[in-house]
Write a structure and sequence with these properties.
The longest helix has 21 residues. By secondary structure, this protein is α/β, with parallel strands linked by helices. The strands form four sheets. Strands 3-2-1-4-5-6-11 form a seven-stranded parallel β-sheet, sandwiched between helices. A two-stranded parallel ribbon has the order 7-10. Strands 8-13 form a two-stranded parallel ribbon. The protein is built from ten helices and 13 strands. The protein binds nicotinamide-adenine-dinucleotide (NAD) and uridine-diphosphate-N-acetylglucosamine (UD1). Nicotinamide-adenine-dinucleotide binds next to helix 1, strand 5 and strand 7.
């Protein structure tokens, strides 16, 4: 590949991406992360990795870096990744999740930087709670939070800007990603990490609602695989792709999987549905599959790997 920038590369998904990219001896990777949520320890040790503890909102730094390094690939993952946090801090979220993206694009355009591909990570949150299922990329967009609004605006900026100024770009909408390196200290941890944590620490697990709500839980290896595929495929340009498994899994059935794999009992408490939750979500991934990437992990095999 060559010279690669990964913003948010100390976080859960970003550092897993770096783990994969570093396997190719031809790659040199630069990470920009302010460690607001990420962790230095997530980054593998390698002389081909340069780490900057910097904010993507430090425009002077970002411009100088982009011009100096002349990256072939840019993976832009740095974000306020929590919906709840975005509701607490909408203006700050907008700076990180939207303005930083436009700044990267402007720097590329104004300096005529010759990047091979820029990939932006958006979210299934852009679909909101519209009842159409499964979610296709052309399904109604109903962002309900600052997080979702900024993800949608950034993703569209990246794609339409790419068309207008002939910059090779692509975007992905992740569904519910799980795997090692998710921050257990984050108050916004996904349900599978909370479930694992309650088993590890012998705590009751609280199900919000009847547990029949379903999601598309996608294992981190497939998320990384899809990103690398879309960044390097010359056919996938100026398009957005759902990244999930294309399968729905209810919370009750995930709990059953956990019990079987770990051969342990879990004490469940049922509580009222969580305010603001969407009931159900899962992805139509035909567009991703047609582009040449098919997920390798089912919920069973992903959970087995995760819990091992
Ligand atoms: P994460 O919080 O682990 O990673 C985000 C990283 O960005 C963190 O390391 C954080 O320190 C860094 N960061 C935050 N603000 C920054 C700033 N101003 N400058 C530099 N770095 C900054 O979250 P993640 O789950 O790895 O998410 C990665 C990307 O994927 C995010 O853009 C997120 O919105 C998106 N996404 C994640 C999921 C999921 O299920 N985990 C779903 C949809 C979309
Ligand atoms: C996830 C994202 C959210 C994004 C949305 C749409 C996380 C943490 N949240 O929300 O930012 O907007 O996808 O793409 O990744 N649950 C319990 N008990 C718990 C925790 C959760 O029963 O202790 C339930 C929730 O009520 C929900 C389901 O589990 O019904 C999944 O919750 P969660 O993992 O937070 O993900 P989403 O709600 O899908």
């Amino acid at each position: 590949m060559g010279k690669i920038l990964v913003t948010g590369g100390a976080g859960f998904i970003g550092s897993s991406l770096v783990d994969e990219l570093i396997k190719d001896k031809n790659n040199a990777i630069v990470i920009v992360d302010d460690l607001s949520m990420g962790n230095r320890g997530n980054i593998p040790n390698s002389e081909r990795i340069t780490f900057y503890e910097k904010s993507v909102c430090d425009y002077k730094f970002m411009e100088e870096l982009l011009i100096l390094e002349n990256f072939q690939f840019i993976y832009h993952l740095a974000a306020v990744a929590s919906v709840a946090d975005s509701i607490e801090r909408p203006a700050y979220t907008h700076k990180v999740n939207s303005e930083s993206t436009l700044n990267i694009l402007e720097t590329i355009r104004k300096n005529k930087l010759n990047i091979t591909k820029m990939l932006f990570t958006s979210s299934a949150a852009v679909y909101g709670d519209d009842p159409t299922l499964p979610k296709k990329e052309v399904s109604p967009i109903k962002p309900k939070t600052p997080y979702a609004i900024d993800k949608f605006s950034s993703e569209q900026f990246v794609l339409r800007y790419g068309e207008l100024y002939n910059i090779q770009t692509v975007a992905v909408r992740f569904f519910n990603v799980y795997g090692p390196k998710q921050n257990p200290k984050s108050p916004y941890s996904g349900v599978l990490l909370i479930l694992k944590d309650s088993i590890d620490n012998n705590k009751n697990f609280k199900v919000f609602g009847d547990g029949e709500q379903y999601r598309d839980f996608v294992y981190i290896n497939d998320v990384v695989g899809a990103m690398v595929h879309l960044a390097t495929s010359s056919n996938s340009v100026h398009e957005v792709y759902n990244v999930g498994t294309g399968k729905k899994t209810s919370l009750n059935s995930v709990i059953k999987n956990f019990k079987e794999i770990l051969n342990s009992n879990i004490t469940i408490e049922y509580a009222e549905p969580r305010a603001g939750d969407i009931k159900n979500s899962y992805a139509d991934i035909n567009k991703l599959v047609d582009s040449g990437y098919s997920p390798l992990f089912s919920i069973e095999s992903g959970l087995r790997r995760y819990l091992k």
